[in-house]
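Aim 2, interim progress: modelling of the FE2/S2 (inorganic) cluster-bound target.
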Amino acid sequence: MMAGHPGQTVAGSGHEEWAVVDYIGVSDIQNLVQSMGAGVFMERLAAEIESDYRRWGEFEKSARLASHSTHGVIELMPTSDGHLYSFKYVNGHPRNTSVGLLTVMAFGVLADVDTGYPLLLSELTVTTALRTGATSALAAKWLARPDSRVMALIGNGAQSEFQAIAFCRMLGIEELRLYDVDGAASAKLEANLRSLPEFASVRIVRTRSTAEACKGADIITIEGLSPDSSHPVQQAWLTEQVPQCGYCQSGQIMATAAYLKSNPSPTDADIDANLTNICRCGTYERLRRAVHRAAALMRA
Ligand code: FES
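Predicted structure of the complex, ligand included:
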């Protein structure tokens, strides 16, 4: 990693006119997580995210800029708080896996607003996975019952390990139930978790079905809503084609499913007042239509 500050030059490098920009690569992130411990890292990351949410109004917000092509999309996500400016570059190319490539890659830049100098260039592929786990646990910290101790983790791919680490650390999960249609994915997740000291006292149970995993669990991820996307809210979301990037949509769907239990016939005003999850892609119009559709399906 190179050290640098805005306007700093590399003395004796023969390139005095160049400013040096810090770089954080995948190995830097891995070293940081290992040195702190995965659970502590996630908890501190969640605290940073929470403090930024608490000053949400200070951020300049705009819809992400998407460039669609035949095989995928490349998006830029800019923001600024008036002092620091940043953007994230992220792609989504579903067919990449067929040629041994990742579906999603990301990197980002942090810059000084006053000078416009870039301060930091960072990989954001691994970091995004860490961020997603920390953000999910942060949401659950505020939304789940405080005495929640049993969690069903349905879908045991790479992201689920980050979810498990964050939830067990931040919510004190004592029993983790795993289910995936691919049993090998659950076995791999279990082995990875068991190798972490944080999971020494967590009961990890591999289950044979979604139903078995969810029975009596306190926290259920979106896959627990139905085994085949047949829940009325999921059906309405599919019909109205609500998601754009999809990042916020698990939360939108779970919030809607919970809200419709208490208000089966919401008005637009009810929806706006009660379903307040934020969508950076601005899918609110389609989301509202989907909520009405889901409500009608549930009343039928
Ligand atoms: S943030 Fe992209 S669909 Fe909501």
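Residues 125-143 form the longest helix (19 residues). The pocket of FE2/S2 (inorganic) cluster is lined by residues 243-249, 279-281, 283 (CB under 6 Å).
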